[in-house]
Amino acid sequence: xxxxxxxxxxxxxxxxxxxxxxxxxxxxxxxxxxxxxxxxxxxxxxxxxxxxxxxxxxxxxxxxxxxxxxxx
Length: 72
Description:
alpha+beta, 4-stranded antiparallel beta sheet, globular
């Protein structure tokens, strides 16, 4: 699946995010978070859902979650 927003293109299959035609280097968890937020754009994504999807339910600090959200 390919998503386009602004001057960005996110290719979920190839796990690539481009801005202005240039690939961006992002962490895998940030990429997965972007996918989750894009695919859930019509509703609020809860902290619990982010942890369940991105970290498979493992314990995650608020600082870790916050840094991934900020990076996204």
